[in-house]
Write a structure and sequence with these properties.
4 helices, 82% helix, mainly alpha, 138 residues, 0% strand, elongated
Length: 138
């Protein structure tokens, strides 16, 4: 079989166009999936915060202050556990995020030292205790 430069260029051009179209298709699909995931996450987060805040405001307005405080303290405990977990499994976390998490945990430890709270869920309480024990404040 005789190798024809013209045929090689045609096949190469078709191959490159196919790769580019395939790449563009994959980019478009992943972009759409990412956008849908971000929208779903945002809507769920906003809906949760809306419901939580509306409930807390109702409790505060009806003078159920202790119940509102317990709800916020419990949310803080969950945030402490989540942040500590992200810090411990720091694969892919930039130094900026690591520093931000450490600062948040330092603030949480200072807050807990001046405002002690024992979570009604014993497992969460122990995890918060362990997380804050790892935090060094000056």
């Amino acid at each position: 079989m005789k190798i024809n430069t013209k045929n090689i260029l045609i096949y190469l051009t078709i191959f490159v166009c196919g790769v580019m179209l395939g790449g563009m298709s994959i980019f478009f699909l992943t972009n759409q999936i990412s956008r849908q995931f971000i929208n779903t996450y945002t809507i769920n987060t906003v809906s949760y915060n809306f419901s939580k805040n509306a409930g807390l405001l109702s409790q505060l307005r009806s003078s159920k202050i202790e119940k509102a405080i317990n709800s916020l303290e419990s949310d803080l405990d969950i945030a402490i556990v989540e942040l500590h977990s992200r810090l411990k499994d720091n694969d892919g976390i930039s130094n900026d995020y690591k520093n931000m998490i450490e600062e948040k945990l330092k603030y949480a430890k200072q807050y807990r030292l001046s405002n002690p709270y024992i979570n009604s869920n014993e497992k969460i309480g122990k995890r918060v205790e362990g997380a804050l024990a790892d935090v060094q404040i000056k």
